[in-house]
Amino acid sequence: MSNILLSIKDIEVFYGPSQALFGVSLEVKEGEVVALMGRNGMGKTTTIRTLCKMSKPTKGDIHFDGTLVNKMPSHKVAKLGVGLVPEGRRCFANLTVEENLVAAQRDGEWTLEKVYELFPRLEERKDQLANTLSGGEQQMLAIGRALTTNPKLLVLDEATEGLAPVIREEIWRAVKALKAQGQSILIVDKSLSELLPIADHCVILERGETVWTGTPDALTDDLADRYLGV
Amino acid sequence: MPNLSRETYLNIFISLGLLVFPFIATAMDEPFYITLATRVAILSLAAVGLNLALGTGGLVSFGHAAFFGIGGYAMGILASHAQTYTPIFTWPFVIEGTNQMLIIWLVAIVMSGIAALFIGLLSLRTSGVYFIMITLAFAQMIYYFMISWPTYGGEDGLSIYVRNQFPGVNTLDPSSFFYICLVLMFAGLGLSAMIKNSRFGAALQAARQNEERLAATGIRPFNIKLTAFVISGMITGLAGALMADLNRFISPSMLSWHMSGEIMVLVILGGVGRLYGPVVGALIYIIFEFIFGGLTDYWQFYLGLILLGVVLFARGGAIGLLAGKARHD
Q: Average pLDDT over chain A, rounded to whole?
């Protein structure tokens, strides 16, 4: 149960000449939910982009499921089992809901039916084009799409940002259900009140560096204020 | 009564119209119209090929004349050897020419597929305007190669005196040849509809929209696009073989960039990414050529105006104008 699924060690990343990450480290064990936190612009999304190989680290190592993935192209990392739900609920707008889910499907326990069970709304809308869905439904679709690839690690980047409270509740309910099934999750989110109860571990970034790692209980108000308050 | 969209009705109407067309033409005592309709079917098929790459996959290939011409030369070379009873190769093994359409089609499809694989492998590493230019460059290379290669007529082209044969059909009868071309056009349409509705088609459209996002789901966009490009080239290559057979003549002009442009114009006129877009485009093109080509040598000027109108005011092409936006049902 406690195998290390993902280990990121001291990675540094540049966008052109400007350095974005100055040494980010984090670990996700199997079955664990890890919260990646920090204010805006501190490197959370870059860390995730680097994990999914959309940006390449110039230093440091990323191991996923025992494999060094530093130099791997995106699609190979995804095949190893990284399921990304990108920021801003990005579906394939020109495809229907079902096409979105089926296009990247890989064998495993997550089938179309199970995704529909998790998000019944998607089943009602399965023949609609993704760009006709509401923001919340698109987010559900983006999560569903990542799940049908049967990832070992689900990566949620700002999954509840800008959504109506009712929809946020539904997404959190789904995340909890996933955790209960033993799904490993790396999650970025700003609403601490929802995030902390389900996280097993927290990692805080500041200015492109990991500055604090610990359990949610150890995250005092003081720390939260210092690293996350605005 | 199934709830069909207007586009479906339009497609059915066009299909039926084409199916009964030879009877109408015969009744009007205008057999030449059948030849025009045959051109529509063949150009449609060529554009169906391009539409798969351009419409579904977003790959703006400005070099599809290469596949059209390779298909044409596959027919020309095989049939010219057959009519002079000379083998194409004698070493290391003997390859004879043939005048059997089925073999010619197969060779045309395979050769244009190989060309598309090679061109795609290199050009699909780029995108946008570079992709357009590289596909154009490859097509021009083949064009100049055929001009300077005297064995098969060079710039003058190659005449085939008798139309090739199809088992059990008199291909010299215009109606029979029309139906052969029409069946292949429907097969091309069926194949592209099947591809579009498959998982592969979904991934292809996803690649058109955002490659990075597709890669993040574990699919390599390059492979998807290459496969689509090769299938697209094969369909256009088959159309080339048919066109050569219709004209009984093949020359480098089939490989020229004008031809690439013409195929692309058909797709845009009819409606990019719409199943029957290429057919409607070819219909408009041929009707225009027939009516205005008789009045003025500069009919393409007026076609240009129409194209401009479509691009500016009817982005969905003629199909978009007649049947509204694409519907998903």
A: 91
Instruction: Give domain status of residue A229, yes or no.
Output: yes
For residue B224, the number of C-alpha atoms closer than 13 Å in the C-beta half-sphere is 28
Give the minimum alpha-carbon distance from A100 to chain B in angstroms, rounded to a whole number.
Answer: 7
Spatial strand order of the sheet with A209-214 comes to A82-85, A153-157, A184-188, A33-37, A201-206, A209-214
Mark B2-19 as b/e (b = at least 16 C-beta within 10 Å): eeeeebbebbeebeeebe
Q: Does a structural domain hold residue A173? A: no
In chain A, DSSP finds a helix count (H) and a strand count (E) of 9, 10
Q: With a cut of 70, which residues of chain B have pLDDT below it? A: 1-3, 327-329
- Tell which of A55, A99, A148, A153 to mutate to test the B interface (max B CBs under 10 Å): A99
Pull the structure tokens for residue A193. Answer: 């009140």
Burial class (CB in 10 A: 0-12, 13-18, 19+), A61: middle
Query: CB B215 to CB A74 under 8 A?
Result: yes
Closest CA to A188 of A160, A223, A207: A160
For residue B197, give the chain A residue with the closest CA. Answer: A99
In this structure, is the dihedral angle defined by the CA atoms of residues B295, B300, B306 and B308, taken in order, positive or negative? negative
CATH code, domain with A30? 3.40.50.300
In the predicted model, what is the mean pLDDT of residues A105-116? Answer: 91
The CA-to-CA distance between both ends of chain A, in Å, stands at 37
User: What are the structural domains, with CATH classification, of chain B?
Assistant: 33-300 (1.10.3470)
Q: Which of A73, A127, A145 sits opposite B217 (nearest CB)?
A: A145
What pLDDT, in 10s, does the model give residues B129-177? 999 999 999 999 999 999 999 999 999 999 999 999 999 999 999 999 9
Name the domain count of chain A: 1
Long-range CB contacts for residues A12-15, cutoff 8 Å, separation at least 24 = A12/A57, A12/A58, A12/A59, A12/A60, A13/A46, A13/A50, A13/A55, A13/A56, A13/A57, A13/A58, A14/A58, A15/A46, A15/A55
**Segments forming the whole domain that contains residue A194:** 1-79+185-230
B216/A105 touch (CB, cutoff 8 Å), yes or no = no
Residue of A nearest to B57 (CA): A94
Interval A84-103 mean pLDDT: 88
Q: Nearest residue of A to residue B203 by CA position?
A: A103
